[in-house]
């Protein structure tokens, strides 16, 4: 059975042992910068699972800034995919990361820290 998590941002969930490293897929809307989303979401994804972040039509610079955070969380950038949207925002982009190894126990950091001091 596949376990999927659709995340707003639940800042403490990644340190909860009953959720940590247990989801096949985590999906997040464009609720925060990619560096922050990676730190909150990737600790929840099992090794071999994927994290998908929804972003605007031109996220390349944001994704570039997030590469270090993605790697620190044990993942790599798998694909950047344009997605047609019928919303008023038009075209969206799916940022897809593949989790290759466990996230170090120190992540995610305390709530609020990733937003104040992004990786």
UniProtKB/TrEMBL annotation:
Recorded superkingdom: Eukaryota
Stored SUPFAM superfamilies: S-adenosyl-L-methionine-dependent methyltransferases
InterPro entries to which the protein is assigned, alphabetical: rRNA_ssu_MeTfrase_G, SAM-dependent_MTases_sf
A single MF term (Gene Ontology): rRNA (guanine-N7-)-methyltransferase activity
Annotated region (Disordered), positions in chain: 100-119
Keyword rRNA processing: yes
UniProtKB keywords: Cytoplasm, rRNA processing, Transferase
Gene3D superfamilies associated with the record: Vaccinia Virus protein VP39
One Pfam family this sequence matches: GidB
Any single Gene Ontology cellular-component annotation: cytosol
GTP-binding as UniProt keyword: no
Alphabetized PANTHER family for the sequence: S-ADENOSYL-L-METHIONINE-DEPENDENT METHYLTRANSFERASES SUPERFAMILY PROTEIN
Official protein name in the record: Ribosomal RNA small subunit methyltransferase G
Native species: Capsicum baccatum
Source species taxonomy: Eukaryota, Viridiplantae, Streptophyta, Embryophyta, Tracheophyta
């Amino acid at each position: 059975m596949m376990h999927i998590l659709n995340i707003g941002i639940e800042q403490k969930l990644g340190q909860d042992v009953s959720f940590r490293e247990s989801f096949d897929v985590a999906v997040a809307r464009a609720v925060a910068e990619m560096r922050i989303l990676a730190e909150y979401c990737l600790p929840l994804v099992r090794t071999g699972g994927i994290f998908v972040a929804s972003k605007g039509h031109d996220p390349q610079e944001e994704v570039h800034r997030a590469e270090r955070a993605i790697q620190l969380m044990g993942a790599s950038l798998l694909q950047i995919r344009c997605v047609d949207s019928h919303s008023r925002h038009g075209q969206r982009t799916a940022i897809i990361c593949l989790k290759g190894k466990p996230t170090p126990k120190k992540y995610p950091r305390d709530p609020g820290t990733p937003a104040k001091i992004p990786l």
